[in-house]
Amino acid sequence: MASQRKLNTVKEVREMVSQYPVIGVLNMHKLPGKQLHDMRNKLRGEVMIRVVKKRLITRIFEGGNGMASLGKYITGEPALLMTRMNPFRLARLLSESKSTAAAKPGDIAPREIIVRAGPTPFPPGPIIGEFQRAKIPAKVDGDKISIKEDTVVAKEGQVIEKPLADMLAKLGIEPIEIGLNLVAVYDNGTIYTRDVLFIPQEKYLSDLRQGANSAFNLTLNMGYYTRENIRLFLGRAYREAMAVAMESGMITKETIGPLLAKGHNAAQYLKGKVKIEGS
Question: In the Cβ-directed half-sphere of 173, how many Cα atoms lie within 13 Å?
């Protein structure tokens, strides 16, 4: 049987949730306390974060508030996020609030990690063996060690082993992103997952341009007139009419000049032929 304390927590958080139209599920796994404190300060006034045990969050979502389906996105070390902000603006704000940190052994690469070619600050010595253990091609170049070529040392999702973590730290490379891991958001009956929320704005603009171009080309191919394409249709019709008039020899104010030029050229050609035959 649930303790009175847990029942009070469920009631309290359920009342908080009812005051916000947008509810998010966070995974706080491996989020340092200092970074959480800093981000709470950054988001103060915009976002409310409440750390609650997984089982209690499930009970909160099953309280008849229409968010039961959000429960399947609870993972890791969960917390609730409450806001009145548009979910996509929220996602951008969380992305902008992220910071970087050195990798630790066992961390997962958030993206492809590349070590660039060029000199390092290290003099020749035993450290070249550390480069080799981290699978980073290096060589002695004068009084410094240089990295031979750009090298992908970890792919997205790959576990970072200790030799690589140590070498990345020495090179000053901080590949780990520290921020609030927003798993999913409930917004007035609709659930948005992170793969939708964190699509770059540039991708939306690119898709819109591509869609507009495709629609424009479709109207041209099917002969559907719009304000945007009417000039192209009129230009095409004019060119086709001119071609028919020229082929048939129809004299109009538009064709008279080209027809006279055509006749002149034909006359010149015949004049040349006559001279050749008479010579």
Answer: 17
Considering the domain architecture, whether residues 93 and 118 belong to the same structural domain is answered as: no
Whether the Cβ atoms of residue 17 and residue 80 lie closer than 8 Å to each other? yes
Please state, in angstroms and rounded to a whole number, the distance separating the CA atoms of residues 279 and 276: 5
Euclidean distance between CA atoms 179 and 207, whole angstroms: 28
Q: Output the pTM of the full model.
A: 0.61
Positive or negative torsion for Cα 17, 20, 23, 28: negative
The helix or strand, by DSSP H or E, that contains position 81, with its residue range, turns out to be: strand 78-83
| 41 contact partners, CB below 8 Å, separation of at least 6 | none
3-class secondary-structure state, position 80 = strand
Number of domains in the chain: 3
Q: How far apart are CA 147 and CA 171, in angstroms?
A: 11
User: Which DSSP symbol is given to 42?
Assistant: H
The per-residue pLDDT for range 175-196, each reduced to its tens digit, is 988 888 999 999 988 999 998 9
pLDDT, tens only, 112-126 = 999 999 999 999 999
Range of the domain at 152: 113-175
